[in-house]
Amino acid sequence: MKKVLIIEDEQAIAELERDYLESHGFETDIEGRGDIGLQKALGQSYDLIILDVMLPKVDGFEICRQIRQSTDIPILMVTAKKEDIDKIRGLGLGADDYMTKPFSPSELVARVKAHLSRYERLTGDRNDRGDHVFIRGLTIDKPSRRVTIHDQEAALTAKEYDLLLLLATHPNRVFDKEELFERVWGLESVGDIATVTVHIRRLREKIEHDPSNPQYIETVWGVGYRFRV
Ligand code: CA
């Protein structure tokens, strides 16, 4: 199920958006404060963000700018002021779309769907062609679970492979250590998130030309890791 983060401080609008999206099969999360919304957007895995401009603590312009430094997931900005539209365009914030309030909720849902499918096509075409993932000299052969770097095979353990595959199939998305641990090790595990750090280090030793200056798996300080494209 696709997950949408709604950063909106007007509760009635946030709830209207939520109701429409949920009735169309989306999962949603509402946050009314800008600073917490930004943290959520950076730390958790959403497929799309609906972002109000005027927000307490940190405004939508700044949130958009900061999200764009770490991920290219679709951002749909919503504003009460027509003049904000020029600002969104002018600042080159990287928002994918914008709507002025009041808007029709069904129009919102239509745009959310359009952006999600566009984004899927984009990331799919670029990095993930069926059984293989190709990114700058790195190839992941999914059926055989083999990884090569410039045609040299990298001998990865099962967990190193799972970790790499998860990161590489979600390029540019920042994962925090908790999420990586949950998704790669799951319930079977007895370790803790320090395991993630250790595995990332070993993985880098195997796939990076210079592990201290990684070209594939990048550390996002204070948050986690992302696979660069
Ligand atoms: Ca507002």
Question: Can you walk through the features of this model?
Answer:
- With 229 residues, the protein is α/β, with parallel strands linked by helices.
- 43% of the residues lie in helices and 22% in strands.
- The protein has eight helices and 13 strands.
- The chain has helices at 11-23, 34-43, 60-68, 82-90, 105-127, 158-168, 177-185, 194-207, and strands at residues 3-7, 27-31, 48-52, 75-79, 97-100, 128-129, 132-135, 138-141, 146-149, 152-154, 175-176, 217-220, 224-227.
- The strands form three sheets. Strands 2-1-3-4-5 form a five-stranded parallel beta sheet, with helices on both faces. A five-stranded antiparallel beta sheet has the order 6-7-8-9-10. It has a three-stranded antiparallel beta sheet with strand order 11-13-12.
- A hairpin with a 4-residue loop joins strand 8 (138-141) and strand 9 (146-149).
- Helix 1 (11-23) crosses helix 5 (105-127) and helix 6 (158-168) packs across helix 8 (194-207).
- The longest helix is centred in the middle third of the chain and has 23 residues, at 105-127.
- The chain is elongated, with a radius of gyration of 19 Å.
- Residues 9-10, 52, 54-55 line the site of calcium ion (CA).
What is the radius of gyration computed over CA atoms, rounded to a whole number of angstroms? 19 Å
Helix tally?
8
Report the mean per-residue pLDDT as an integer. Answer: 89
Hetero compounds:
calcium ion
Relative helix content: 40-55%
Strand content: 15-25%
Query: Separation of termini?
Result: 25 Å
- Let me know the number of strands: 13
Q: What is the string of SSEs from the N terminus onward? A: EHEHEHEHEHEEEEEHEHHEE
Structural class determined from secondary elements: alpha/beta
Q: Main beta sheet: strand number and arrangement?
A: 5 strands, parallel
